[in-house]
């Protein structure tokens, strides 16, 4: 390890510590909790002589931010930044995930991993602005998150030094094991949280380790917080009309009560509310990990799941099938890059550009029925649709010839549509 | 067109006609029905002077086969073959689809397209056995199915001639249009069926054209036949344990009542029964077509949907993540080849071999809860799991070093597992 | 076939006929020659009652254009357009092929297939300008070119009708066979050309059929026209410095004599001259075909081969390796699309956009030695190089840690370079 | 770092040291030489208290093995293993590279990287046989090779500990810098070698660092050792007939003098001799590296280059074009895996299986002319050829219809060929 905090501490330094649920998922169960371990790290860094700037991102998690601010100051931070990055998260990260229809290993909407670059970007902004020489994170040497976090830090501020207490023997030898950590927490008045690791943000909530960790176990009934227990879901569907432009939702209308949401953050939060009530977007999977082996986790992504399906349908309705195949390959790559922490890499920038390009004509209104864990597509319309009623309809016997098998008909329709678009 | 039936008819020929729901999906709404149009074709071919061998595949559809046999003979077939290909369909076609996790355009389990090579193989066997020089099909010049069907015919029996009445002016000029066809049917005592195109087999049922054709319309309430209306689904989940070997289900146990099914066809039918009751596997999508443009269809695939999810989880639990990525690319190709009718091509044989190879260690038992349109994974266990409790667990702070980021840990686990497998 | 020329001819129509070496490659050996068969077609179309506008593209082939004009008028064309599309061909088609490093089946620089959309675009412009209702081409029903040509025609002018005499029984029944065609030619004073099919343009020359057709045969010694017989190549190398901007050559300097060429067409022709003298770019391959099976052809692409190598080196020097891998997949797709005639398709437009995007930083000067069939790279420099002398150099033992295996170093270098570029 | 050699040395251990040109390419220029740095490491490890088993692979490099044995013993090895792995290298590694047509970044035949798993496998065999607890290598912390080497060691013998002196501060602080190393070498009588890094094996020779390191520089004239200076190449071509079975060469016949070679190692060495004389297979490239950035190297791979071209042609002649496209994607992956050191990974095992499967019908005889840096294909024949003279030939106007564009003709030919093969 490049840096021994003990020696580094001799020079007076500003230090950004990271404090948010979203980046300490692999930590020390069964008492893994952001507040606990981040607080311990904060205290420990202070003991090593660092000047600490605490940073906490509000990325949509349910959290008492003022309590967190007070605790940070109490435990020794010189300064505390609590930054609301929710809107950036939706517009710059979630929207691209929706456009790409990215799934990790066929099932997982990447809810945790999309937050990494969003949270860290803001942290590195503060790091540069405040001239901090070190940044710290609370992930362990075992997990994926250390790599994701450090890749981003070094990409954005190459000269920074990362301090990772859980990879530092002086720290982990002192605090490892349940009793040691509890002891340390008690001594310093740090509250003891829930018995499993939880990661929440606007896009999703996940639970890992502790009880759900063994894949033979079923999830405990009280675990769900972002979606409702399916047994308690209402019996009537919600009917929503979602309008897309360039592959991104721009308007959500509740068909029954006429409610309309048109800005990114608001419509996303509204979809979370509607879909959460119906337990939409709940999955329980074994996930392949980046560095280590497999891990089991329960994931809930209500709004993301509705948009995933609604976008698929709009795409099928408006995107050429061959463009779609090429884009599908790029989306697999995108999912992998997000998962492994390479958002700020040249390849990810390239892939994001290409995916966005593929969405230019993904435009339309789709009606969905949201009822008890399921999203049904009810109907579709689009001014840019490749769905040309005449040719597909089975009602007309016309002069199609077998030569159409080569694709001539598809190209004719495409160029016909292009000329209509140009004419607009 | 290669063949003018009028002249061909002068030589006495044996003729196989195709008669099954599963291959005439694009036909002539609003009166599209297999029995109707196949009957018309049979009669018309007889009028052209052909000797007709009728063929009907039993591939799991609900149909009165004896009625069909009687009608075929009544309308002029010299001989009728009604062949039950259900078991071949499950073992040689559906199992590979499950192993590959193939989805067409992210959503569609390929239920219709998997039947094509299965049905046609048997037909071509009869064609060769009976020395028929011609085969006929009832698809039109507009749709995908003509290409799928003809590709397979010519692949398997290169010297055969295909007669496609709906591409033959003498036929379609006489029968096109609702009134003409109705008239012709009435004259010959052919019954008039339901107003939309329906395609049923063991794997799925789909509805196309007629009312559901316009994507702005919602499906009519009475449309569901393979799954139950969600409003009527029971309130208690069924808990099933599904055991996989080499990526294929070999045993299904109902955990509550202890029912066990262990042969391919029986366990698949049992899953259809359980999942259908809960309305699992219902989708309503706009599909990209091969030759023409987009079309809208409602699809139901109850057993296939359960197995898709259960297999995904077993795969995640036992398959190396990098092998999976490569296999994922092959599966996209496989889905495309099935969709476009290239099952019997060299590339599809190659891809099927590779996918089967990738499944050698996909083995384990997965518990699923089937409740109201949703499949939940409850738990997983496998003797071949890459899920090694120690390394993933967050409970242990051990000597993982950052060098593991290169993949050394993954390879260690893999070779460790291999040595255990070899030792068995 | 949609159109019977005999009946179409009853209405007075303007007709564009195609007349260029570049699109009639599969024709009638052993007397396959553009002038011969195009002349026959022209005469035959006139006999069917069409008004004919002849069109000949100058795309860099050696041809007596005035002689061609005279012959066209003599054989009955109402009007003759001879259009020089060389510059468009280099800038809009060849440059993209260079940027993509596209090879068909690992070896073939796509010289013939790049011309198809270029030639046909101009023809369709004339077709629209002159209000012609029909276009004609001289490819047969057997080859790839019919599909390539017709795909483009229908893409660009959907309502046009294509007349393909070699797919029209009235034509080919009259003229098929050596004697018939010779007879017809003699009767109408059409000259008899060389005994094999040859396709020449700025990018390459290919020979097919006739003697070289059997893959067991070796090419006859006198066959080379674009490159020199290697036995006669000079003994001293030419040293060229080629400068790239955005992946495209913008300047070629002959290091020995100081000659400089800076415009696209001129520098490409100069490279053809230098490389042709040294027999660079000569290949003799079995090519997989689109519709039919394999065919053997000899290909020469002097300038293209130099640029292929020089661009590869500049790319390796300036393009991130992960971007390159993604782009490589897109290039395989691009090569396939060019080969199969889908230049004007939505997927090709998308792929071309993405490839061009990947080239934004491919900039630098590369020195190459051109000597006797081989291009050697001598050296490389670039302001946008990712080749950072310090990190790669083996001279320095520095503080690289094993964590670099995760890719942190690569990202640091990339963002460092980006900041330098932004600063420019 | 896991292991401090100083403490480890307290227990008496057997130690395998690695001593071969092929794995120390990034080392300490300008005095980088295997003998030098391996000798220094050997001496240094002995000083740390290890018992040393020296290992040197004979993988086709020109080297005085007896001199190496003497030196190893002189510098303190307890035992020396000099293992000839040439035949395994050809049959188990090079042949697969030929089958896959693998190029790294479009140009590089992977000559260096193919040796890694071959050399290390044998080393790990000895390690296990002798019960050694440590293995050592002489690559630095900066380069790609450390990862490649360590991945393989840990894959094959998970419990082994790797000692990497160039990543160990105690070692590199003492020996870094030209003067220190020279001093240490002189003190111990270690000979001083050539001024650049050279890596030789049967497949290729490469030069890196020192003079050729700066990409602006041209290679010094005396650098070539595996191929002849092109200026001195003979003026007459060698004509070889190469016979392939399952994508692998099984017989090489010199057409002029009748010489025949039929075993893998002998025919490969013979091709090296013939091609080397003509300077075939010489490239000079900037290579993207795995961990660090770009590096420049000169590569020569005479036999590999001939086989690459001959195999491409046999493949084009006998392999279906769509199988080829899928296999091409797998080959890109294979090249990446070889390059990054993942030969012994599950994904590489899977990819190798699939590639070998694709080669089952790649069989035939190809004649090549080898003259002055160029391989010309002269002709091809194969009993398994898809080149069916009738359909491709332009001499026959037959009944091909446009429907062939769908691929029916291709499938007919394939199944026709399959039935012929089955009949054999």
Automatic annotation (TrEMBL), chains A, B, C, D:
Entry keyword annotation includes Cytoplasm: yes
Catalytic reaction list: L-citrulline + L-aspartate + ATP = 2-(N(omega)-L-arginino)succinate + AMP + diphosphate + H(+)
Listed GO biological process terms: argininosuccinate metabolic process; L-arginine biosynthetic process; urea cycle
GO cellular component entries: cytosol
Keyword Protease: no
EC number in record: 6.3.4.5
Keyword terms: Amino-acid biosynthesis, Arginine biosynthesis, ATP-binding, Cytoplasm, Ligase, Nucleotide-binding, Phosphoprotein, Urea cycle
Superkingdom of origin organism: Eukaryota
Domain Arginosuccinate synthase C-terminal residues, every copy: 196-420
Subcellular location: Cytoplasm, Cytosol
Domain Arginosuccinate synthase-like N-terminal: 36-191
Name used for this protein in its record: Argininosuccinate synthase
